[in-house]
Specification:
GO molecular function: carnosine N-methyltransferase activity
Number of domains: 1
Structural class: alpha/beta
Distance between the termini: 27 Å
Radius of gyration: 23 Å
Shape: globular
CATH architecture: 3-Layer(aba) Sandwich
Strand order of the largest sheet: 5-2-1-6-7-9-8
Order of helices and strands: HHHHHHHHEHEHEEHEHEHEHHEE
Helix content: 40-55%
Largest sheet: 7 strands, mixed
CATH superfamily: Vaccinia Virus protein VP39
Strand content: 5-15%
Low-confidence stretches: 1-49, 366-371
CATH class: Alpha Beta
GO biological process, one term: methylation
Number of strands: 9
Region (Disordered): 1-49
Mean pLDDT: 87
Family: Belongs to the carnosine N-methyltransferase family.
Number of helices: 15
EC number: 2.1.1.22
CATH topology: Rossmann fold
Length: 437
């Protein structure tokens, strides 16, 4: 799927924006940020509408999934409430004797769902800017409306937890492992001089809600975020451009989690977002005589976008957090990254090797339900860490920093009786200075 880029949340350099917009329809909306202003560009025309019909329908389907969150959440709520009410009288008396108030539980449940929907509705309203920016001459009411798939709905619930991870104090511990080693490596051993970081071009593939790319720009780097999922693009746009006050929204990311609780209050634990207002952080930098690095965003498949000639040797760093294992063919990722890196550039990685498409192998056995695949027809290959690093060396990478193993959860609930932990690998690979591939 070819997706158009959203308006960059902060003004990038002219060359950056031309690279980001060169393969997709242009955006005519300025970013919502008073501190940076877009520079004049000769933007490419949008392609014919028919070529983008699938993208428009997918975008609107994603918006519908976000707007219908409360329908899905309340359906589950009602079923759970009815199950309690169907209990025999003696069992309801037991709960009453244990001071379990069903009225209080389900009142809090309703309130949590309502707050979440208010947040998602605000996000969707902001998403209308993206649609107009992508397709300025198209009336969205003329586009056929598709019902969200079960996967679309699941991603809505996971997006709430992604906001907890990326933009709340509750997610600080996960960010310290997922992003901390990358930020530390770039600011200490690799590029310790802040004054020269604006010349260091950092690419963040699989950027999600863009906290890592924002942190890099706050540290003075020129950064470009890349994302493929419309759920993440819509949510990331809102996070960067519309969260204008600290603790602007209160979310209840665990309100639908009714299992493995120590305490009922854990289900209704609130999370305030954002923990850091980017605009305030930029003001603080300016007050201290420091600059905010350039920040742009490009939508689309990583390999399709960054194997293009204009990205060859264009990046000093690829900062990869929980990204490499999203590939059908992880070797293709290594090749594309090698080509995009400038001589002497770095791949700085933190993540597991979950291999997101490994489950698609079962569908390959059924001709009725073919799985997705890479352009080479590869559905999934799964390498061990040592095999991956061996292949990287064979491709020409130098192991600059050997793997360090760290433990972390991913959008985890530290109040839950169930904890899923990853032992992730942090390592740094370097492209040789004498290589031009």
């Amino acid at each position: 799927m070819s997706q158009p880029p959203p308006p960059p949340p902060y003004a990038a350099s002219s060359a950056q924006q031309q690279q980001g917009l060169s393969t997709s329809p242009s955006s005519h909306h300025p970013p919502h940020n008073p501190h940076h202003h877009p520079q004049g560009l000769s933007l490419p025309p949008a392609p014919p509408v028919n070529d983008m019909m699938d993208d428009m329908r997918l975008f609107l389907r994603t918006i519908t999934a976000f707007r219908n969150y409360d329908v899905q959440a309340r359906t589950s709520l009602i079923v759970r409430e009815q199950n309690f009410k169907r209990l025999p009288a003696r069992h309801q008396q037991l709960l009453a004797a244990a001071n379990v108030s069903l009225n209080e539980i389900f009142s809090n449940y309703h309130n949590g769902v309502t707050c979440n929907q208010q947040f998602l509705t605000a996000m969707c309203d902001a998403g209308a800017e993206l649609f107009e920016g992508y397709w300025p001459d198209v009336d969205p009411s003329t586009i056929p409306q598709d019902e969200p798939s079960p996967m679309d709905v699941d991603k809505v619930f996971s997006t709430l937890r992604q906001f907890m991870r990326d933009w709340s104090a509750e997610g600080a511990q996960e960010r310290s492992v997922a992003y901390g080693p990358i930020l530390h490596a770039l600011t200490t051993s690799l590029f310790p001089n802040r004054a020269t970081r604006n010349a260091v071009r950092v690419l963040v593939p699989g950027a999600g809600l863009c906290r890592l790319s924002v942190e890099l720009a706050l540290l003075g780097f020129t950064c470009q975020a890349n994302e493929f999922s419309y759920h993440m693009l819509i949510a990331g746009h809102y996070a960067q451009n519309h969260l204008s006050e600290q603790h602007q929204h209160r979310l209840y990311p665990y309100v639908d989690n009714t299992c493995n609780m120590f305490h009922r209050a854990d289900q209704f634990f609130p999370v305030d977002v954002p923990d850091v207002c980017v605009m305030d952080a930029v003001d603080e930098l300016n007050a201290n005589g420091m600059h905010f690095g350039d920040l742009s965003m490009v939508a689309g498949d990583f390999t399709e976008v960054y194997r293009k000639p204009e990205h060859r040797g264009a990046w000093n760093v690829v900062a990869s957090s929980f990204f490499l294992d999203t590939a059908h063919n992880i070797l293709e990722y290594l090749e594309v990254i090698m080509g995009a890196l400038a001589p002497g550039g770095y791949l700085v990685n933190v993540g597991p090797l979950l291999y997101h498409f490994a489950d698609s192998l079962s569908s390959a056995l059924s001709p009725e339900t073919p799985g997705s695949a890479s352009v080479d027809g590869v559905q999934s290959i799964e390498l061990s860490l040592d095999e991956l690093l061996g292949a990287a060396k064979a491709l020409g990478y130098i192991i600059h920093t050997p793997p360090q193993i760290l433990e972390t959860s991913y959008t985890g609930n530290n109040r839950s009786m169930k904890q899923m932990m990853y032992r992730v690998a942090f390592f740094v690979l370097q492209k040789p200075y004498d290589e031009t591939r």
